Task: inverse folding
């Protein structure tokens, strides 16, 4: 199985024939204007790696830009820009655990073992100005110990 995060967020782009193309370091240039659609959402999807057939999709109210981490124990970990850390059943996509971290999740999720106990670490906080305007506080690392 392949597990992927995804973003559904469209925009209407209008080219500007009158505008001169100039380079401005650090500035985004799209060749005109972009009007983002107000509706945006995200997904974590499971796809059969051999057939390419979708197996399940988890729908999020915000884009999912955080990494998705799989485990040998049949659990998929991910995070949402809503600030929720997720543990999903790898076969069904059912939410096994959902935890509000207090800030948007846009980075990696790591799973590791110490002395026979599984731990999961995830960073919560403003991933970027593009995905989360304003200040959401300093990044925080949450570490969970699983039974």
Result:
């Amino acid at each position: 199985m392949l597990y992927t995060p995804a973003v559904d967020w469209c925009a209407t782009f209008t080219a500007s024939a009158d505008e001169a193309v100039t380079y401005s370091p650090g500035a985004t240039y799209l060749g005109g204007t972009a009007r983002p659609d107000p509706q945006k959402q995200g997904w974590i999807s499971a796809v059969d790696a051999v057939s390419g057939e979708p197996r399940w999709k988890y729908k999020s109210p915000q884009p999912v830009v955080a990494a998705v981490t799989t485990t040998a124990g049949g659990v998929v970990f991910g995070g949402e820009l809503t600030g929720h850390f997720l543990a999903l059943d790898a076969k069904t996509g059912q939410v096994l655990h959902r935890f509000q971290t207090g800030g948007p999740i846009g980075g990696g999720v790591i799973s590791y073992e110490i002395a026979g106990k599984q731990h999961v670490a995830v960073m919560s906080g403003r991933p970027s100005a593009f995905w989360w305007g304003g200040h959401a506080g300093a990044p925080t690392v949450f570490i969970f110990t699983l039974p």
Remarks:
- Residues 64-145 form a domain with the Thrombin, subunit H fold (CATH 2.40.10).
- The two ends are 25 Å apart (CA to CA).
- The mean pLDDT is 85.
